[in-house]
Amino acid sequence: MASKKYTVIFIPSNSSGARRFAVGRGTLWITALSILSLLFLSIILIRDRASLEITLASLSPLQESAKAQRQVLDRFGNRMKDLDTSLNNLKKMEDQLRIMASVKPRKRGGNIGLGGISKNDLPERLEGLAPSERRYVSRLNRQFLDLEQRASMQSRGFTELVSHFKGKRTLLSHTPSVLPARGWFTSAFGRRTSPFTNRREFHSGIDIVARQGTPIIAPADGLVIKAARDSGYGNLLEIRHMQGIVTRYAHLMKFLVRPGNRVRRGDTIGLVGSTGRSTGPHLHYEVRLNGVAVNPLLYIVDAQMARR
What we know:
By secondary structure, the chain is of the alpha+beta class. It is 38% helix and 24% strand.
């Protein structure tokens, strides 16, 4: 039995040239099913898109909150870096104070009270964070515990020093703990290339470049034992303090004290010059312990000033 067919007629708007097409029943059904399938698929896509937009809208506040939390954590991390730098500076100052007071370095370690979040408690409080954020917070917690321990040790160290200093005020007043002149710290203690011979040689002090006539102050109490010309040193001033410490000041333009004078820390003792073996106005400053030159920076409390 022949398949039943349908005739489809297309009539243009000018009513001429009409076209006829014969369409079988099977083809018609397939076309109808295809159209229905496309409509059904379109409805599903529209619904999914609406659902996705709702989900994204609900996630937006969470993303903003996560961003804000991350910014807080970053600021917290930067603050901890600043604290780490401060503790390092305090440790250096403590070491210098111990040298000044002839106190042995404190022992590391010991039983120190600590607080903070324990390693076992930490994961339970971070379940809502992404793995990367959890690792970041865990690292900050370890740094916090380290800073807390170091701060406790530093507090004990300074407490020990304060107790020691109370009985040694006279000794401290005779210890050269400040720079004798303001200027630019240019040449360090130790081996250096000589500006005159271009060879390596030992530099027994530090050089502070300053303008001609800049005041030189006594870095500690003491007795002036020399104020005279001394070949390469030019005008040389020496002050004897306590415990075998003698300080030297070379290349002076002018002496403002003379042998036999007692000076106090902060008294003006001379003026910066360029006498003797010198390439320009500066102060050559030495600290000698029992006749042996030592690094003056070991005694200077304000190390930052020494590098200006």
